[in-house]
Amino acid sequence: MPEIVPVILCGGSGTRLWPRSRTSKPKPFLPLVGDCTLFEAALARCPTHAGFAPPVVVTGRQHLEHVEEQLGDVADAQVIVEPAAKNTAAAIALAAYRLPEDAVMLVCPSDHHIGNPQAFAEAACAADELAREGWLVSFGIEATAPETGFGYLKRGEPIGDKGFRTAQFVEKPDLERAKAFLADGGYAWNGGIFAFRVKDFLNELKAHRPAIAAVVAKAVAQGAVDGRRFHPDAEIFAGVDSDSVDYAVMENTDRAAMVPVDMDWSDIGNWYALHLALARDANGNAVRCQGPVELVDCRNVLVDSDGPRVSVVGLEDVIVVVDGNDIMITAVSDVQKVGKLSGAVNQ
């Protein structure tokens, strides 16, 4: 079977994980769950011995040093250096125009946690089969809670025994609607993981966002190779429209499919999401500390410290983070507001 090409998207600043995640070194490049970073884990899930081709990493210049340091000596990897952040449609198109038209791209964010890599690999194989039949495939991640921070995929009719048509892409719902989705059982989270052949993706992009396709194609055609780096033409790329792949392609194509998967997935989108991804004690507490920590009569508390002693007494549903001279404390119910703090905004 031809290889699947992992396309790893590295961008963003992870402001909701401030002060640990910063613009200078955002969450993909941090060891938040386990000893390796989220980016290193994304690479490790796609090994060549399991049928994956060398990865294509799409990143901005500000993250290039971290990408190349953590990419290490992965053979034949390619790093596409985005001249500007223009959202996922353009980022994926950059990779597509650098690959053979029959190649299957497996598009993966670099900053997600997947606790069951075997389930991920099995879903990738199923998605690969559908993609080679001309489907544009999303991973439909099993919804385990009425989350309001994720988009959803509504399951349509089966496509053999490999997956399903995507009947509907649903925007982030309110809580009552999210509860209804969970009760229905026919909805899955849209985690932003996709598989499609290069030619199928580009044909859909040309049909629904012709300006993006044309500008990216020209920027790639006039780009330059520098070792394993590829630099699209910056002046041309500056003129591309910013749009997500969901809006630009996936919600418009009549060949949208989904592969259901339960793989212990988290987008690690805020401190509470990280808390849930970590090992917790009988009281729901989790600790990631380089220095001493003491919890007394606490429940559902996360302490993340890079050194100073931390003592917490009698608190529940609280996050405590110490990073150098910055200390951030939030109630679990307010973790989404962390990205609005002046330290996060002006980091």
Structure description:
The protein folds into 2 domains: 4-266, Spore Coat Polysaccharide Biosynthesis Protein SpsA, Chain A, CATH 3.90.550; 271-345, no CATH class. It is built from 11 helices and 19 strands. The termini are far apart. It is of the alpha/beta class. It is globular. It has a 5-stranded mixed β-barrel with strand order 6-9-7-8-12.
Give the tally of β-strands: 19
Q: Summarize the helix and strand pattern as letters.
A: EHEHEHEEHEEEHEHHEEHHEEHEEEEEEH
The proportion of strand residues reads 25-35%
Q: Which residue ranges are poorly predicted, with pLDDT under 50 across at least 5 consecutive positions?
A: none
The largest sheet, given as strand count, sense and whether it forms a barrel, is:
5 strands, mixed, barrel
CATH architecture of the largest domain: Alpha-Beta Complex
- Rg estimate, integer Å: 21 Å
Rounded to the nearest angstrom, the distance between the terminal CA atoms is 46 Å
**CATH class annotation of the largest domain:** Alpha Beta
Broad structural category? alpha/beta
Output the CATH topology of the largest domain. Answer: Spore Coat Polysaccharide Biosynthesis Protein SpsA, Chain A
Widest β-sheet, arrangement of strands: 6-9-7-8-12
